[in-house]
Inverse folding.
């Protein structure tokens, strides 16, 4: 049987979920959001792809080994945390500065974004590894 | 006042859906009731957001909508195919 309606809806909805995930990621620190929930939403978009298509097709679409995502994310998080030791301040100290960006105006650039990037990658990787492992053993 | 009454009515609707989830004779009834519970939850968050005069909860509505959609699609696929995630599509 041919579920063309579901596939068409998925092609429309997955970019929206991915955009919402990025919006949640950058909204963190001042508004509800952050790396964890953004990563969960990105994983939700890929889970929708996994449900509608199959594992082999999605692996061809997104040729990333999700286990590497976990390692890369942990490297980001630990590197940002340990980088503060170079400036002779305690572990996990973050720095920020107000910068005038050309399009966005006055923006606060924060090193917590790098830490959150690590959290994002770890959450996406772990969620997809767990779901693929459960889904494969049917 | 109106908002409180509407919250109470939405809670009563939620109780009805909960009854249908527990009692529902077939699996399709339970899936429909769960989907409707998600939508009612989004409505309740919207009413609370109006009640508290804040726009901080509007992300939550979108989040609940997306999660309810993905959950309903997963349940529907499970009912139709017997598996949620296929290794390889075979028709």
């Amino acid at each position: 049987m041919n579920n063309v309606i579901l596939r068409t809806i998925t092609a429309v909805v997955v970019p929206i979920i991915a955009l919402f995930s990025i919006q949640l990621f950058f909204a963190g620190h001042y508004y509800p959001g952050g790396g964890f929930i953004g990563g969960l939403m990105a994983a939700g978009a890929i889970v929708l792809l996994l449900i509608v298509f199959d594992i082999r097709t999605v692996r061809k679409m997104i040729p990333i080994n999700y286990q590497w995502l976990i390692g890369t994310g942990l490297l980001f998080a630990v590197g940002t945390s340990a980088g503060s030791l170079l400036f002779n301040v305690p572990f996990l100290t973050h720095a920020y500065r107000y910068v005038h960006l050309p399009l966005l105006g006055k923006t606060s650039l924060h090193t917590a974004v790098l830490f959150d990037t690590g959290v994002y990658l770890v959450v996406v990787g772990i969620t997809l590894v767990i779901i693929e492992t459960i889904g494969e053993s049917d | 006042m109106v908002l409180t009454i509407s919250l109470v009515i939405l809670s009563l609707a939620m109780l009805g859906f909960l009854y249908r989830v527990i009692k529902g004779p077939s699996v399709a009834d339970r899936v429909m009731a769960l989907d409707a519970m998600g939508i009612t939850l989004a409505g309740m968050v919207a009413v609370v957001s109006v009640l508290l005069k804040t726009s901080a909860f509007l992300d939550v509505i979108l989040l609940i909508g997306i999660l309810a959609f993905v959950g309903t699609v997963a349940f529907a696929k499970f009912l139709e195919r017997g598996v949620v995630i296929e290794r390889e599509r075979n028709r």
Summary: The beta strands of chain A are 96-101, 105-110. The mean pLDDT of chain A is 87. Chain A has one domain: 4-136. The CA atoms of residues 132 and 138 of chain A lie 11 Å apart.
